[in-house]
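Ticket reopened. Same input as before:
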Amino acid sequence: MDIRNSDIKIFDPRDFPAYLPKLNTLYDDLFSGGKGFRAKLIRLFAEHLKIPNKTETLLAQTIEFIHNASLLHDDLIDRSQLRRGKTAAWLRFTPEYAVLAGDYLLARVMVNLSGYGNIRLVQYTAEVISDLLEGEWLQDYLVGDLNIELSQLDRVHNLKTASLFKWCLRAPFLALDRYEPQMHTLLEEMGTLLGQLFQRSDDLLDYDIRNNEGKAVLGDLKSGYLNSFAAFATRGLTKSDRLKLKDTKTLEDFQQLLGGKSQFELTVKEFDEKNVFLIQLYQHHLKTLAHYLSEDEKPLLQQLEPLTEILYWRRKPS
Amino acid sequence: MSELITLSKKDSRFRSYIEGTFSKELRALPIQSLNVNTDAEQVTFRIFPVHEVKQPLWGFHWLQILKVRNFLLVAFPIFLVFIKNSLEGNLQDPLTGCLSAVGALCLMTAVNLRNDYLDHLSGLDRLHPQSGSHAIQKGWVTAAQVQKWSFVYLLAGIIFGLPSLWLYPKIILLVGIFALLGIFGMTSYQMGLKYRRWSEWTVFLLLGPLLTSGMQYSLGSQLDLQILWMGLLTGWLSVFYMHLKNFDQLMVNNQAQFQNTMTWLGFEKGKKWLFSWWLLFALIFQAYQFHFSSLFWQVIFLSGLILVTLPFWKALRSLKSPLGSQMKTMNQIGQMAILFVMGLWILQGLWLFWLQP
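Engineering reply: fixed in the latest deploy. New output:
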């Protein structure tokens, strides 16, 4: 499915007024180059749930607005210099503009959604934004903490990464006024699993595992952040070995700390096994979701099944 | 090979799966719970053969299930009462006292086991993975077995307490209050005693003045000021331990909407509360030593308290967030402070006992 850049960017002409040229340049820059994965997910639901086009566009844009707003803020907090291969907005346009641009996107989300008139959707979206910000706060405290545990990182990722996936799964049903609580809890859990899998896979890239995108290696560790894989891999290290993490400059240094390359590979395998269980759980929930869908809607399940392949294993479904 | 099964609370099989009685060869571990503690609850179980359960060494298995660590909170006040009466030559009835002590430990175990069982049934141990002995969650035992053992220990506690009840009817009143509070705490609250604000005062009474007074009577002695003071201190220390655990789990408790003093206070005020609680303990404890001990021990305890209070204060001050490894470090330092004070107090008792003519 193709997502056009303009599809994601403009919902209402008032979203990006012409009298704010700098803001428009910033958004042009930001929105181009993204994969629009979350918007594609919305489209998948829209197609099978027979969501009207206008609603579908609103939902797709909402999630992309929120996602991009979070990227603007995230890059500034992390002091990341690059976003999608280009200079990050805070560096190119100043930190003040990056914050304002992010805030503006979130404000537009609320304007557009409230115009749609579904108060439960508005409330849920506001909760997701609040979760994102909460996660950002918490993550900032974890920078420099080399003793962090995977379960603690999961809590942050549940707020930060997973909340957007949860939104993608639940919002289409809310937009259709389908509020079955059990189904929404199920979708929430499925979103959590997808978010966790995506984050853990993304964290593996930092250690050059399945790094087909050529992401910079050890970026997190060098900036003092122990990501989910690192927290898992270093769980058995002594206090003195943990201190050495600060001086780790290359992947070889890191592997050496774990006991060599073969030990490192074994750890990756263990980490994968742990996540295979999450994938199994996701597949199991998909079967339960079938109870809440009509016969016409059930083909959606086939489309949702390979998501873990894409998000965790980073490969196209066979 | 394991498989997954999701059951709704309304399903007739739900109870047998959650209690582990559905099969003798298979075990069902709840791995995910949706809509916990509501009628719409759904639990996903991982089903696997019992022989695949990774059992720890036999001894460790039971140490964990019976929460032997928590025994200290009961055993310590009992020790203090015994040693005090022994030093005063006032051990009128050591046999009945010993039986009551065993009874108190059995009752504590029964309450712990019953709590684990109820937490498992209501889903709290899934929402709150740090709680409980983890024995049910790991599949070492089934919830039904834990429930059975809680009754066994309750019965043992009553039997061991009977001689005291027979010989010293005064303690009937105390034991009655003790049992009532315990049962009330276990069964009256939907989310259990530990998830309620102000429940600390129940813990204070149970592991403090009620316990020391009850033991004093069961030894055939009369209540005095020192026993009440001891109860005040051991109860206060137990509540400090509870606050420490609740503060450590502040974020999880908050997200799961559990109520306790720490979630009510929040992170910053909670830090202050925790330190104030400890500081007040240190002051009362020093006053106790001033009143009942020699100058030598007053100096030892004052130095000891300063020695453990400073690192605790430092750990609390450096805490920036409820998430992260600093929280764990602070918790460990707090627990070390408790153990240090207990150890020193035990040492004092044994020292005086040794020197006694």
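The beta strands of chain A are 82-83, 86-87. The radius of gyration of chain A is 20 Å. Please confirm and we'll close it.
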